[in-house]
Design a protein that fits this description.
Largest sheet: 15 strands, parallel
Structural class: mainly beta
Distance between the termini: 75 Å
Strand content: 35-45%
Shape: flat
Number of helices: 2
Number of strands: 33
Length: 486
Amino acid sequence: MLLWIRNEKGVALVSTAVVAILLLTISGAAFQKSFFEMRQVTRELARVRSFAGAEAGIQNALAQIGLNAYTGYINTSPLSVPNFQSVTGQTVGNYAVTVNYPNLADWIILRSSATVDGETKVLEGRVFLDSNLSKYVIYADSDNFGTGSNAVYGASDGVSPEGVPANENDRAALYFTGNWNLAGIDIEAFGDVHAEGIINDGSSSSIVHGDTYVSSFTQDANGNVTNSGIVGPLTITDGYADDIDRNQDGLINASDYTDRHDLTATGDGDAHKIEDIPPINHTFYQANNNIPGFAGVSPQNRFLRFETISGGAATRVVEYSDATFSTPTGSTYNLPSNAVVYVNGGAYVKGEIGGRVSVVSSDDIFFDGNVSYHNGQTTADSSHSAVFMAKDKLYFRANDLAVSGILSAENSSGTSPAYDARYNTNGAYDPSSKVKLRLYGNRIIKGTTNLSIYPDRVYGYDGQLKYFRPPGLPVIPSLQTVRETT
């Protein structure tokens, strides 16, 4: 009997030990799991914080880029923050951002790296740059802009049904802040036309190879168009079956007013917007002038011939004594590959541009001869582009004239026309002598023009100027893509 009792006590002791060990094991496993999960939560919290830190770096870099974007100056300095804090004020990590502006083109690469509690996240962002000064074959700020006979805007791409790409971002574009009056015959536009007023066509021989966007476009609740914004028999077609069944009758036909859209709409595939052109920032160009003597206190006319140097990578400016360009003053100026020439006074120009050059005048700019890029190249590329911006007017004086680049006239005197072709290279009023005009690039006009004095004229569109802009053109930065690389 006593042996049995002793045995029971031994069994109980062993059982208690086994249970204790089992409970200890379970507790240890539970603690280990809790500890592991806590570590995972801590690491995940650090990942979230590091991701947020990298995002903060992207946003701060975007703010840095946008600070002076209205001047076209892109600050590519890297950003770094030794540490940043949580909402409770605790120092938790740091970030660093590099800003890469390849080819000084229309996009920027941001690479932001942030570390929190040993966890690192790397984000890459793409910032796209858009400038209204380089996207339009013509931007006319005028209540009524008239176009004379035989004018051609843009050119057929030779591939698409109507000579314009399917993607509207690849097309030439025309913009009128008021009415566009097709005052002549046989007018062609290869691209989309935007008008805040109406488009008025008096003949049946003109055509828009593209779409129209007009503020006066209206339709009723059933989708029936009550005003297309077009007056007259103008032909409008982009050649693609991409139109809207506005009245929802199951057919796309003339009742739907194909290829005609509302400039101010936000839906139905019409979404566009009214756009403004910023004024020239003369203070910026004066401060960044590569020929400081041209920006003297007293206005002075300058007579400038451009010559390419360094194999076409840059420009030499040769100054002459008067508009005959017969007697050099002995002053020459070798410009860097990206240069600004600001003239306090009138600028009389001709020649070839190497590199990227901005020519800005506090008064007028006179084209007394052809202006092209190196070796007569008429379109821009990563190494060549130009802009000519006049505070007042642009004068087209040579009888047979070709000019490449962005052309802008603000017409500060308030008189029409802003683009004037009535005078010859001697300065005499002689509108009857004009023969041919070729403009390869984009035009910004405040007011009207009289370029129809040239009976043979083409306004070419240079899409490369959207990507490879001359220095100092105002841009609008837009962060469009962000991806995680680490």
